[in-house]
# Entry
Amino acid sequence: MSKTYTKTEKAFLTYLREIKAYHEALSLIFWDLRTKAPKKGVKTRSETIGILSSKVHRMTTSDRMKEFIDQLKDETKDPIIHKAVLECEKKYERSIKIPEDENKEYVTLQSQAESVWEEAREKSDFEMFKPYLEKLVDFNIKFANYWGYDQHIYDTLLDIYEPGITVKQLDEVFPKLRTSLVNLLEKVKRSKNKPDPSVILQKFPKEDQKRFTLEILEQMGYDFEAGRLDDTVHPFEITLNQQDVRITTRYDENDFRMAVFGTIHEGGHALYEQNISDELEGTPLSSGTSMGIHESQSLFWENYVARSKAFWKRYYNTFKRYAPEEFHSIPLDMFYQSINEVRPSYIRIEADEMTYPLHIMIRYELEKALISQDIDVKDLPELWNDKMEDYLGIRPRNDREGVLQDVHWSGGSFGYFPSYALGYMYGAQLLHAMNQSFDVNQAIENGELKKIKEWLTVQIHQYGKMKEPLDILKDVTGETLNPDYLVRYLEKKYQDIYQW
Amino acid sequence: MSKTYTKTEKAFLTYLREIKAYHEALSLIFWDLRTKAPKKGVKTRSETIGILSSKVHRMTTSDRMKEFIDQLKDETKDPIIHKAVLECEKKYERSIKIPEDENKEYVTLQSQAESVWEEAREKSDFEMFKPYLEKLVDFNIKFANYWGYDQHIYDTLLDIYEPGITVKQLDEVFPKLRTSLVNLLEKVKRSKNKPDPSVILQKFPKEDQKRFTLEILEQMGYDFEAGRLDDTVHPFEITLNQQDVRITTRYDENDFRMAVFGTIHEGGHALYEQNISDELEGTPLSSGTSMGIHESQSLFWENYVARSKAFWKRYYNTFKRYAPEEFHSIPLDMFYQSINEVRPSYIRIEADEMTYPLHIMIRYELEKALISQDIDVKDLPELWNDKMEDYLGIRPRNDREGVLQDVHWSGGSFGYFPSYALGYMYGAQLLHAMNQSFDVNQAIENGELKKIKEWLTVQIHQYGKMKEPLDILKDVTGETLNPDYLVRYLEKKYQDIYQW
# Structure
């Protein structure tokens, strides 16, 4: 910070840095809870989380914050401070519009709902979760009205996770994408050239899987001096600070795909966070710009890189160095086809890359209808199953593998799901743009994964939250959201595999 | 908390709980830094530590805190709150007596001095460290005068770590202890029956050492659901909350004693913290009452239990289950004698239990003289070496193995060292008292280590900071500090080993 700041700017930066300190502590606490923490300490730890979170909340909604916003918004000449002010203003405005007692009630509801959901899912009992979900939907409708919106009430929820994206856009894009995917899926189903996934479902010791993924992370340019890899039940990436970006993964010794693709996925998130410009450190801008853009990075590495033929041309021998004998006799083509098997599944997180976006659209359509009060919570299980049958051709046998499978709604997250499908589309658009700069497949085959990382850093990572998601997309690809690239990518790839 | 509290009491407890939350975050950060954290994240992490620490400092010295103290000190009828108020008052009074600018200067000096010390020790160059140490001593003299004292200026520093202990007491006890130890050491030196330590210096794989220590920790009653064991460079125990008390250890594959006795030592600290009464949770009372009493617990397990013959009678077979072949032919007596070899060493942390307290007395005498301005910093190396020769019969060949070996002074800790020797003496007094309740050696030989833990919990652990160190000693043993028990213990044990 060799820049010259005004007194207010300096005070604002110090204030932001203090908020960041609590965030860093909270992130470490979450990481620890999910990787290392002894179980009896969790009760007190939860209280501590509550105390630190409410400290952050008080600071982001304080009169002091309001003063900073008012004083700096029009006056500051520093573009980073200006953008940070806008970011703070957004959070401030959202927070102060919610009456304190309602917010308190909502926070309590969230934590109750999450544990009820867990039990309800276990028992596959939607009725148990229903009253909580009803209240959560009601709160979200009420909050959305407090926040206000131009066109569609759901827009204001979308805006939390993917600023700039609206119902109007999604309603244009998603149906096109859905039709294309359903058509592709039909072709897959009719194909006589189906891969046999069982050939790759061989026992693969955890420690050897880990060694392989560590080597790939290294190749991708993940900086192990600014991060680490641990085991967990639910894989995640978490940023403590810009030079401490950790990832976790889980292992299935009978299906290496979980850890290998899971780790590369989280590695993609981590590369984003590790490569944000140092200039943004200590401000709310030093993080990925949106859920969708973040997901475009993780999916880029997981699918467009690591599930490509070029990748396995390059790394299949490396893989075999760590894999047990049983893998050694599988021909490359057969291996490649097997890891790319398309098979409609009940569970979203087990879906392949072709059917995955269909899972998202089901959730989008349902939650949009819930928020605009076109459907009732009580009708969800039936509607869910109908859509599954419609889009994927399979009907869940119970709510556990249907409407109860995801945690998001129990935490009150409405508007989040679309990010996943956006990530797929953004990613395909970025792949297209990257191919204008250099032959991506050739680079992968040459083992130049760092070239991909560099390109993504220059185009996306460095900006953190300085640019809005659709501005990034525009600047990099010259276009707005466009599903055609994803469809074309899938068509080309799966035509080759399924030979229709 | 089913008690009825007044409004002020409730507010005070909430305030204390918030301070605890920052402490918990800080503890986790320290633990993480020393066990897991990627190195590039350390810079930002250090800033974060500074921010959280100064938040704690602001809260413990705030006007609000002063109000709580004034309102509750004489009014509260709750003994826990009353004691917590006194504890807060003590911290408050100490803090506000230091002018803010001097404190700031001192904090900066501390961190500079620590890194200068590291380099100076590396280079064995006292001159390099001298100006920093001079300033640190000056500050401590100045602060001690701000704080005030009755008899000796050093008393007010002692009081930080071991409330109730004074120079008067130490000057009675230490010389007696020193004379006895020097006499015992003479007998050891003249003995013709010296153990051969080389027989136990066999390669012992780290993972197997760990398995053995885990089994012993389990036997001691360390609760692994409320803690965990990790690797580190400098072993420590750290309390995140009462149900999350972690320990770390380091391994030397050519000398198992480092990890085995080190882990049991930290385990002793951890048992103390794990077994404090739940009623004190969330207050500053939920921690060990003093450095000396804490050390009495760790040393109790390390020496009085784990270096005893009874312990190895019981656990030598267990040990052999994990130890390599080379150990299997060593007879129990020879093994026992070897792990208890007495040999004067330059380095305190490598000292045996007989010579260890002599290292402490050297430091005590020197720092007391520094603070009372009877000697100058520049004369330290020479005085140090003279005393080493006098008490231990060896003269350091350089400052690295002499006056520069310990980190404490570089952090401004004067008054801390005596705790170590107090821990030895307290421990021997507790052992004597425990033997009035049951035959300790017999219990160890029966593998009833938990009986020892239970006794220590009832007598000491549960009280946390509710009792002052000398009150605990009095209540448990009926006596005040008395070095005779330690001397008798050492005499008996080493007469048996060295057969004089």
